[in-house]
């Protein structure tokens, strides 16, 4: 299987490395010539926090290039699947220009983003494409342009969102998605196809909207959120407000979702959330597509979500670009 991976961050490198090791033909598309060059020279290294021996894939075992060359390459030599691993801000800022030459192409694309809005944008950019969602609990941290730490294994679910229009030929789409899922399993991931991906997306959004911004604001790891009653109280207030928005929008969520959030904090106690990592690196965060999604849903339902709105403004104001 020939797989294009757009975005060489922590999860992008993890996905690429394991797929290459399993025999897939991978083209990895980076946002900078510097990273593409380093990957071509040094390859990909995946190390583990538990002390397991690291994996190393040589630069000759895959192709790395600048994302600007993606469209012309795919037009000339199509791949089987495109996995989009960019964070939400890059997804919205970069992809419209990058994908413009492919507007009439019938790509198979799977998106690994947190939050909401990206799948609808991709279907708008590529109306003939077969667009799939991936919801994953895999955890990885990037150490350098070429090395990542696989910080935690999880599950990856592949499915269609109900509001994304499928192309004609549903059986063909299902077969292609099944082949992708099998390739992920062969690469060592716990991957499954699911018809409940909408529920999973909203579940992950709810969890991220409570955990990620508070770790970024307080600059703490996930497990430290439960270290005091004051922190737990603010978490609970964010959760209750988000749950009320879900209720108003008719979005189902688990009756034990609050306990699930606390369990995630315990299970990932040593993890640095992606939002905290962005803040520490002075990068733009995904707050607009996480808590901002909660605010947007509240606005559409005609109810207030003042705490999530305030959290958005607070996080957005943490990194200010020089003018």
Automatic annotation (TrEMBL):
UniProt KW NADP keyword: yes
Record carries keyword Membrane: no
Documented EC number(s): 1.1.1.169
Pathway recorded for this protein: Cofactor biosynthesis; (R)-pantothenate biosynthesis; (R)-pantoate from 3-methyl-2-oxobutanoate: step 2/2
Enzyme class of the recorded protein, top EC level: oxidoreductase
InterPro entries noted in UniProt: 6-PGluconate_DH-like_C_sf (IPR008927), 6PGD_dom2 (IPR013328), ApbA (IPR003710), Ketopantoate_reductase (IPR050838), KPA_reductase (IPR013752), KPR_N (IPR013332), NAD(P)-bd_dom_sf (IPR036291)
Catalytic activity: (R)-pantoate + NADP(+) = 2-dehydropantoate + NADPH + H(+)
Family: Belongs to the ketopantoate reductase family.
Protein name in UniProt: 2-dehydropantoate 2-reductase
Organism: Paenibacillus riograndensis
């Amino acid at each position: 299987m020939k797989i294009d991976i757009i975005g060489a961050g922590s999860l992008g490198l993890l996905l690429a490395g394991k797929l290459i090791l399993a025999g897939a033909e991978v083209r990895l598309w980076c946002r900078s010539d510097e990273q593409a060059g380093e990957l071509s020279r040094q390859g990909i290294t995946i190390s583990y926090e538990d002390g397991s021996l690291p994996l190393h894939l040589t630069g000759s075992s895959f192709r790395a290039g600048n994302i600007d060359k993606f469209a012309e390459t795919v037009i000339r030599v199509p791949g089987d699947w495109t996995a989009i691993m960019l964070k939400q801000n890059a997804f919205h800022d970069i992809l419209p220009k990058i994908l413009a030459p492919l507007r009439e192409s019938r790509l198979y694309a799977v998106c690994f983003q947190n939050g909401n809005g990206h799948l609808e944008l991709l279907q708008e950019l590529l109306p003939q494409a077969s667009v799939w969602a991936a919801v994953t609990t895999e955890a990885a941290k990037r150490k350098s342009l070429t090395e990542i730490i696989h910080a935690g294994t999880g599950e990856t679910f592949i499915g269609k969102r109900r509001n994304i229009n499928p192309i004609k030929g549903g059986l063909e789409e299902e077969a292609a998605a099944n082949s992708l899922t099998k390739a992920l399993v062969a690469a060592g991931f716990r991957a499954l196809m699911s018809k409940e991906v909408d529920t999973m997306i909203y579940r992950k959004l709810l969890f991220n909207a409570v955990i990620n911004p508070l770790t970024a604001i307080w600059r703490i790891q996930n497990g430290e959120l439960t270290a005091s009653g004051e922190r737990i109280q603010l978490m609970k207030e964010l959760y209750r407000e988000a749950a009320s928005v879900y209720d108003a929008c008719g979005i189902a969520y688990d009756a034990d979702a609050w306990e699930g959030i606390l369990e995630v904090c315990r299970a990932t106690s040593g993890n640095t959330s992606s939002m905290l990592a962005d803040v520490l690196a002075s990068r733009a965060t995904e707050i607009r597509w996480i808590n901002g999604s909660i605010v947007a849903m509240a606005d559409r339902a005609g109810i207030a979500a003042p705490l999530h709105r305030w959290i958005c403004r607070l996080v957005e104001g943490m990194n200010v670009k020089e003018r």
